[in-house]
Amino acid sequence: MKRFAPLFIFLATLGMVAKPALADDADARATASKLIDMTRGKESIRQGFDTVINGIISNMQTHGLPEAGVDEIKAAVDKWYTSEINFEEIRPKMVDVYVKDFSGDELKQILAFYQTPVGQKAIKEMPDVMREGATIAQDYTKAKIPDLNAALTPILAKYRDEMQGGPGDSTGGAPPSAPSNPTNPPGAAGAPGN
User: Fold this and answer.
1) What is the three-state SS of 32-84?
2) CA–CA dist 129, 135 (Å, integer)
């Protein structure tokens, strides 16, 4: 029995060392969960989802989807979201992200900031600020696309023949065959297979 005494002492000491770490982890996780609630995590997920869906619906409308179809799609999506998406299943994963990137003390400091009047204003205004910032960046980038297209066009033209034999080609991905008529090579107007 005396031989096992050092082992028991070691295990007991290890247990005492591990408990505070677990308590700190549980405390950090609880703080992270409060932070998620304070910053409207549940509502933010829904808003992000709705933004994506509304973009898809808008695209469908440009292709002729009538207003009645829009209403039906929105109702079906809302019903699905309400019945299938459970924020409490997402919360632990969001908490994992917070405790991975922030210490328990840092989380408490962030939470304390969000409890101040400026922090409350940040919670309220930041989604609009971020949305407006994204729109500005998108509009700016969109104006630069013609320059990108001009840079990419000669590169794509250089590899066009090789790309025609790639996936999605009607030949099933096989490389283009050698031209049977040198005056009318594959890829030329009127060539077989075009």
Assistant:
1) HHHHHHHCCHHHHHHHHHHHHHHHHHHHHHHCCCCHHHHHHHHHHHHHHHHHH
2) 10
Instruction: Say whether both 60 and 154 belong to one domain.
Output: no
Find which of 6-15, 52-61, 107-116, 178-187 is predicted with most confidence, using mean pLDDT.
107-116
pLDDT of the residue at 128: 87
Encoded tokens for 169: 């080609």
| Burial of 46 from C-beta contacts in 10 A (0-12 / 13-18 / 19+) | middle
What's the Rg (C-alpha) of the chain? 29
Q: Is residue 97 part of a domain?
A: yes
Phi-psi group of 191: left, alpha or beta (phi > 0 → left; psi -120 to 50 → alpha; rest → beta): beta
Domain that holds residue 23: 2-115
**Residues contacting 46, CB < 8 A, separation 6+:** 81, 85
| Angstrom distance (rounded) from CA 32 to CA 12 | 30
